[in-house]
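Subject: for your reference before the review

Hello V.,

The reviewers asked for a structural picture of the protein, and I figured it would be easier to keep everything in one thread rather than splitting it across files. Below is the amino acid sequence we used in the manuscript, unchanged from the supplementary table.
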Amino acid sequence: MRPTLSHRLSMGAVLCIATLGIPWFLRAQNDAEKIYKTNCVLCHSVDGSGNSPSGKALGAQDLRSEVVQKKTDAELAEAIARGKGKMPAFGKKLKPEDISKLVAYIRALPKGK
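And here is what came back from the structure prediction:
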């Protein structure tokens, strides 16, 4: 049985709606993941543990740890923007909204432990 034109149009409409209907937070999560992978993975590892060779050499914090997770969003954002210890400042490289996305991404890391 060959699909009719109306059937094809219906399927096209469903695909279009499904694509456009992806929740914005999933797209934001993907943005945050890209920002994290570009700027943070070298030291903090993909999982946030800090167990990369660079992270071990520099003493990078485990972003999933209770110590980090207890910090306020403002404290985390300030550490990202201004740097802390051996961590460089990213305030001139990243927009404030990107830093906010990173903070949210860091908050989600323990769930992936």
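For the response letter, the relevant points are probably these. The chain has one domain: 23-112. The chain has a mean pLDDT of 84.

Happy to draft the paragraph if you're swamped.

O.
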